[in-house]
Batch of 2 targets.
Target 1
Amino acid sequence: MAAPHTDLPFEIPFEIRPSPIQGLGAFATQAIPAGTRLIEYAGERITPAEAEARYPDDGARHHTYLFAIDDAVVVDAAVDGNAARFLNHSCAPNCDAVVEDGRIWLETVHDIEPGEELVYDYAYVLAERHTPAAKRRYPCRCGAVTCRGTILARKR
């Protein structure tokens, strides 16, 4: 599956640099109002089976650039991805991922100050029980007061 067209009619208002949360992160280069569509989460569109074959869960710490759109399509930003893949997880997000017409957009949920790291809650869905061992494979280092210690979605 080919990646969709991802050009935006404006320059992205952030830069990529080292993050205290994890690896590289996206940091605002200007004030950004709430409700701003920042960038599409781009990459190769593959099936969940292809994603599992590329990145099998071997019990080690989880790290991929996968984002599921639905039960049939997963975006792998490691292939043909863009700067969206550098937005880190936080348990106190200032952005949200919005799926619209089969595309994933990252948007701000409140006003952002220049220099602020842009983050969203990955809310990674794991079918198995959230045991301490499972949580260790999906750690969170966001540093938020409300940090739940994992990128896993809360079990409902």
Target 2
Amino acid sequence: MKILMMLLASLALAGCGSPAAFNYTLSPPVSTATGSGVLSAPVPAKPVGPYALASVTVPPEADLSSLVVQQTDGRVLVLVNDLWTAPLSSHLRTALSLELTMRLGMPPIQNLVSGTSEAGVTRIQVDVQRFDMVAGQYVAIHALWRIRFAGSNKVLTCFTRLQQPVSIGVSALVTGQQKNTQLLSAQIAESLQTHANPAGAQCSNS
């Protein structure tokens, strides 16, 4: 019994010495967002109508709650004490939803019980093919995204490449990816409003 008590005490002390976990978000505070030139957008002349954002896909190796950081020598580090508030795919979908809500004045409807018919809802799909965070150098998002417009047969498919230089530190990596997320949402919002190709993306119409 004495040995067991000593073992439990040593484990408790080891736990007390563990580094604290830090949580990060891709959505900056509203006060910061509204003051940023990146996020400023004209109020649409008319409502965009109901729209839904499907589950966002990301590379499997990055779809963790832990931040995944690449080193210049090719190594990949999983930062077990630096965490997104949810697995990356889920968290990125939430961040994009919040950004679109701010820009369009209306949130996606997927979390509501809606009487709107399938034909009356514009559908958005986002496939993030790269979500790179290279320590002390840059962060990047490469995303293929598609909008199926309600009430028509029009489908817009676009490819966006975004990259921001960053300084050393985890906070710099997160801030850079916040900017990339804002810019991606700006392109999607622009297309929802205009039904046209946004600036900065390669698109095709069908």
